[in-house]
Amino acid sequence: MNPPDKPLLKPLSPQDWESLIEDFQQGGPRHHKWTAPNLLQSLIDQAFTSLLKKDFLLKLPLLLLLEEFSETFFTHETHLNRLLESLRSVIQSPLDGVTISYYLKEQFMVSTTSIFVTVNALEKFHSRFIEGLVELLVLVINRPNHSMDRQTRAIACECLRELEKCWPCLLSNIGGHLWSLCQNERSHACQSYLLLFTSVVFNIVNTKLNVSILNTSVPLVPFNVPQWVLSGGDENGIGSKEVVVGLNYKELRRAMAFLLESPQLFTPSGMMEFLGMVMPMAVALELQASMLKVQFFWMIYSFDPLSCHAVLAMYSRFLDVFDGQEGEIFTRLLLISKETHHYLVFRLLALHWLLGLLSKLMISGEVGKYKSIFELGLRFYPAVFDPLALKALKLDLLAFYSICLDRLKLESFSGEEVGIGKSAAKLFEDGLVSVSAFKWLPPWSTETAVAFRAFHKFLIGASSHSDNDPSTTRTLMDSTIFHTLQGMLVDMTLQFQRLVPVIVSYTDRLLGCQKHCWLGERMLQTVDELLLPNVKIDYKLSSYLPIFDRIAENITIPPRGLLDLLDKFMVFLVEKHGPDTGLKSWSRGSKVLGICRTMLMHHHSSRLFLGLSRLLAFTCLYFPDLEVRDNARIYLRMLICIPGVKLRDILNQGEQLLGISPSSHSSSFFNVHSPRQHYQNLKKSRNISAYIHIERTKPLLVKQTWSLSLLPLGDGSAKAGYLESIRDSDPSVDIRDHNGNENLLTAPETERICKSQEPLRVMDSKISEILEILRRHFSCIPDFRHMPGFKVRISCHLRFESEPFSHIWGDNSPTSQLDGADGLPAIYATVLQFSSSAPYGPIPSYRIPCLLGEPPRNDDISGQSVSLDIVPIEDGATEEESFRAPVTIDLEPQEPTPGLVDVSIEANAENGQVIRGQLQSITVGIEDMFLKAIIPSDIAEDGIPAYYSQLFNALWEACGAPSNIGRETFQLKGQKGVAAISGTRSVKLLEVPADFLIRATEQYLAPFVVSVIGEPLVNMVRDGGIISNIIWKDFASDSFLESTTSVTGLERGPLHLTYGDDDESRSSVNISKRNMGCIFVLIFLPPRFHLLLQMEVSDLSTLVRIRTDYWPCLAYVDDYLEGLFLA
């Protein structure tokens, strides 16, 4: 609906209002077109008029629209006046249950209140509007105990409370009347009355306003805004300087006494709001907090989280009042966490409350309170069948409780100190029983993470990461829990090798912390002392190599023990090596050399020389893997010949050349590439297709620049036409009941319609023979949905230009300064990834180990000495092919359509840089889809030409008139899917000489020719010697051509094309003076389609009759024939 340029005169219909509401909700231009000044006034007038109509059904959505966009609609006093008049009309209207209901009245009050608060009506407009709204709301609530509208009165109280919150002390003059209403109300709406009265009293106390709340001399109606509200507020929210400040304690305490007598009238959420106002008032009025405890402490035993939270909030504010009852509160919260009938979130909340209360007790520093809850600590243990989240919180609670025990040990000097220390250690060990299954679970399990989180909590304890923390690392290292944890980790490492990566990660966490790194080093020293002597020398030792790597990094641990262990392990690998070892020896030997490299980088050479040289010498002499021996020989020479400082610089530089960021854990499992290096590589890879090329080996005859895309018709449940080429075979269902009668309810409606439309057919022997040939042919075609389909291979080659590649990716390496072929750049470990939006199925990637760059055009390296690394290719290959890598793209088409294949490359340069980017796309043409029809396995080699000829004849008939084979379906290989033939016919006139057509056919279509008819044509094709193993027929004896062309002789006069009938046999074309014969071509289009060409060759022109069971290919075939014969 378009808004007019002048104010709207015609009332809007409900449909127009729906469009308007949608425009406002949409925002943007659709919203702004309604905000013109000449439209807003008309819209507001019609809105209020529509709200008062009885037959208008969009009252609630319209109210919500006015509320949401109140700052747009209500910009003038007349708008607020219309709003108040409409509210008064709705409130005073009698109920009819349809147009005027309680729900409408309640929503109207809520929306009006929200609008007044949003537009700040008291400050921006005259006070009479606020007074009018308050009068209407007060009239609604001034009917206590009226049962019919109790919910409406409660909503009115909530609206008044919102006005009181927005403008404090707005209702202070009628506080006495509100008190009276609270005393008289007996329905469930009394909570709203009490909260309203409490809000008024709270604002009076908070602003220290001297006003009487017992005075009822001021009438409810008419209502006047207090003068101190109109005169503007001070920093506390209200009051002018002329207002007397001071509290009437006597009246306010009487009001508080009244409020404290009604806690049972509140719901849990209402109690939260009530206590949030009562506690500050009790402090301001200097009341005894014990009164609050007496009235509200019973709620700690309720089963509602809000009630318990209200008591705990009161306990946190008045700690002195609850002195001595901490144990009772702790016991109740502990019972809540253990009672399984509670919701899990309630049980978790109880544990959070316990942690908070324990923190408060620790901050208070009272040792006596610690001892009062000491006995409760033994009840914090998690149960075995507790949820994992509950176990984690209980373990946190136990860890915090251990901190309390340490504080008791420091502050108490009784004879219980030793007992307390033992209890803390026992607390740690017994608490882990509930998560002991992590020893058998995988290292990535959540229970394992919870257990090691508990380790960290217990170990760190009260120590923080702040420099001002008085606790020292020495204190933690001397603690009982640290020694217990050390022994436990060593035992777990020996018994459960799968936990080694998790223990290593935990140690890395300690080593990475500046405050607690000494704990990690001490733990590694313990592992070196206790683990290494007890490790068994076998293949399982390789599981400990990650933690050995951390030991090798630590300069505080002597490397002798680790070197002796690695020496024994290498001897074991040499002795156990055999033909079944495979790559295990290489993998383990490489990891041991990685640890040796770590030692070289972190220890002085003099400290390592004897042990490490003996290990490396043994490895380079006796280790079975050649690569490991070579690497060991390199490390041994570096250790002997290079001083320690230079050796460490060389090893660090080697890491940087590999693109690895400097890390304290150089041999960790996850090496992270430098972000700066990655950004530079990404910038270099933007124009990578300018110098790295992938091209087709055989160019396409026709480069298709478009592709036909068919969208599904109908409801989208199935694809239409040829897009649904194969469907599942329907099981045969007997639709007769037990009496032999036909049961129409069990057969689908479409099946019955199809059965009723299909006429009875009498199948002759010719049709039976055609169907038998087609069934045999389709039974050899695989169903690509359930098994691998036909593959289409596209041959390409990859090459790159040396000069631009070296300019972008080159470096100052020695190889880049050589001359000739030795100086050409190379890329290694190239991976080509393929993707396409065409229906080609998943395309496998292609890998190229190494590829040399093409030499510059003006640089002839043929006369130079070629390196032995470049081996000349035999069989007459040119020198350029040495710089090209063959690439094969394997497609599995699901439809025979042209398309594009996107190519992305990832390779390594000689200097270690990673090359990533997008190359040129490869075009796939319709000619790539041309395949020979599959031959059944029982056909002899000499019977293949006859089989192809019979198949051509059968498919030609099937793709002709629809009535030839009816609605016959053919089962595919695998017997899960069936396919039907729906043929299409076309013709194409090619004005080319016969000899040119024969040469083009021999060059491009020779594999697909199945038969040649006509003596002149047979002689010419046979003389060429390219087309063979086909059926050669004389035209006079061929009945098939006579039936399809209806031509009585080859040398008739000119033929003329006639339009009108659909019969192909009546079409005549001016082709030539003499017909030479016909060439029959059978092309298979994967996954299961066919293309049939009957070329009627004449001297100067050829008429091509085309039949296919995939009509979208006709457009591509037309371009292909023009490119083949007319180019």
UniProtKB/TrEMBL annotation:
The record places domain AP5B1 middle at 249-643
In which domain of life is the source organism classified? Eukaryota
What's a single GO CC term here?
AP-type membrane coat adaptor complex
Give all residue intervals belonging to the AP5B1 C-terminal domain: 1071-1123
| GO biological process: one example | endosomal transport
Pfam short name (any one): AP5B1_middle
Q: What is this protein called?
A: AP-5 complex subunit beta-1
Origin organism is Salix dunnii
